[in-house]
Protein: Orotidine 5'-phosphate decarboxylase
Amino acid sequence: MTGAPFGARLAAAMDAHGPLCVGIDPHASLLAEWGLPDDATGVREFALRVLEAVAGRVAAVKPQAAFFERHGSAGVAVLEEVVAAGRETGTLVVVDAKRGDIGSTMGAYADAFLRDGSPLAGDALTVSPYLGFGSLDPAVDLALSTGRGLFVLCLTSNKEGHEVQHARTEEGVSVAATMAARAAALNAGAAPLGSVGLVVGATVGDAAVRAGVDLARVNGPLLAPGVGAQGAGAAELSRVFGGARHQVLASSSRGVLRAGPDVGALRAAALRASSEAAAALR
Structure:
């Protein structure tokens, strides 16, 4: 991949289309609502229909790898097709795979999802740093060298997340704040945004304040799942992100996807969600 770094490309896409990322999450329940079979053919029809509706109209799409992988090799082949189709439309593709491991295994994950020429390599990848931020080095190195980006799990909305994320080091710093500081160091000097972002749930309330995380200092994009069907609106986004609102890429999945299977209805739902996110964040 050549051209501008991911952070700059994402900032331009959010300026052009609004700060919304549409999740492509072919849950079995959604496939049933759309009248599609719960197999790789249904997943393919679902994912490509979402792309048809929103590509070129939102900043990014985010296929959730697990819902493709559950159908084995045929599902992974569909994920490859979705990544390629997104690239052809010029819409940024964030592959939501949350990979995290150590050493050569992390290197292999990086090779699969971030290497030029890999059929699974989109524009960015979600990763988990909870084997230590340094365990992500192979992904960081490959992402930055190819112009791709990372979204590092930081403050998630699941009720168990605080057990790790709010834990304190001997110096009294929360684990989440440590992860944010490491991302900030990698983004130092980047403009308008660095390429190493964080995942911060849109429904976490004052968790950033309680954990001592300065989101504005990260100088990178903040992927915010939970907008729409999961309950986060303008007030919640303002409370969570405060002065870092301009960095936020709001993610909506079910809030848009439940408008399907009609392409026009999906497009209208995505544009409405994008407008609402822009009003809250910009």
In short: The radius of gyration is 18 Å.
